[in-house]
Specification:
Length: about 130
């Protein structure tokens, strides 16, 4: 069973940056696409960035394009979400999810729970002045 642990959340001011980490154990994260979902208070869960398990482009949701960047470090069995220029609209709980799919756009636009997916516990991101 794959276990995912997110870290790196915290409190930043608008315009600040955070790097979220998603470290896997019990399985190779390279075997999965990895989605970063978030739940912003008052809103439904939404996709943020979906990182392909093959050499295909990462899909980014429109609100984070140009600001967030996903990446993998296979040697560490870890994926990252570099978040720059954080905005007051970005706070919430961020989750990483390992998914056996190759359709990144669909994954990020349908951020529901599915059988066979592996979810982390989430990490809190706060953006406040």
């Amino acid at each position: 069973q794959v276990q995912l642990v997110e870290s790196g959340g915290g409190l930043v001011q608008p315009g600040g940056s955070l790097t979220l980490s998603c470290e896997a154990s019990g399985g190779l994260l390279d075997w999965y696409a990895v989605a970063w979902f978030r739940r912003i208070p008052g809103k439904e869960r939404e996709g943020v960035a979906c990182i392909s398990k093959v050499d295909d482009p990462t899909y980014y949701a429109d609100p984070v394009k140009g600001r967030f960047a996903g990446s993998r470090d296979s040697a560490k069995n870890t994926v990252y979400l570099q978040m720059n220029n954080l905005m007051p609209e970005d706070p919430g709980v961020y989750y990483c999810v390992a998914v056996n799919t190759r359709d990144m756009e669909r994954l990020c636009t349908h951020p529901g729970r599915r059988s066979g997916d592996y979810w982390g516990q989430g990490t809190q991101v706060n953006v406040t002045s």
